Amino acid sequence: MSGRDPRSRRELGKQRRPRAHLCWGHLTIAPLWPLHGANLGTLLRTCDAVGACLAVPRWPWVKQALARGNTLRHRSCVHWVNDPVRWLQRQAAAGHAIVGVELVDGACRLADLPMAREPTIVVLGHEQTGIPVAALDLVGTAVEIPMVGTGMSLNVAVAGSLVAYKLAGMI
């Protein structure tokens, strides 16, 4: 043992927010073309951990997937998106930085991605087809997550969580 006592849940709770955040609009994680509902619950939990919002498409199964995957005891900040490309256009026009997690030429490595200093949207694509071209044209910064193994990509929840922590300045 290291000689240090683990902190109790009560002690940990005192260091954190007393309640769920309202929409700060600083960091939004946007899995706009999700394939698996389980990833949405995981991303919702990550958003709570880093103080971000989650933007999801208004598809019939998404609300149920979020409800099933939300293990938090409070309401989280979720933005419902009807048309992902038009929503991204509006966010870009409002001055938000658009970061896409995608394997493209000129992508920044995750380790080199700076902390978000302006309102930022993190766009996550479909796990098989990626970010659609119309949305990719709106991305100001593309980020890639280096991998040593044989896989081409991580699942959307893992990739989104890594980028969220990096942009939040927590790793």
Quick recap:
The protein is 32% helix and 18% strand. It has 171 residues and is of the alpha/beta class.
Mean pLDDT: 89
Shape: globular
CATH class: Alpha Beta
Question: Can you list the strand order of the major beta sheet?
Answer: 3-2-1-6-4-7-5
Assess the beta-strand content as a share of residues: 15-25%
Order of helices and strands: HEHEHEHEEEHEH
Instruction: Please tell me how large the radius of gyration is.
Output: 16 Å
How many domains make up the 3D coordinates? 1
Q: Approximately how much helix is present in the residues?
A: 25-40%
Which stretches of 5+ consecutive residues score pLDDT under 50?
none
**Helix run count:** 6
CATH superfamily: SPOUT methyltransferase, trefoil knot domain
Task: Characterize the main sheet.
Answer: 7 strands, parallel
What's the architecture in CATH terms?
3-Layer(aba) Sandwich
Compute the separation of the termini in Å: 26 Å
How many beta-strand segments? 7
The helix-and-strand class reads: alpha/beta
CATH topology: Alpha/beta knot
Keywords: Methyltransferase, Transferase
Domain tRNA/rRNA methyltransferase SpoU type: 38-165
Protein name: SpoU rRNA methylase family protein
InterPro entries: Alpha/beta_knot_MTases, rRNA_Methyltransferase, SpoU_MeTrfase, tRNA_m1G_MTases_N
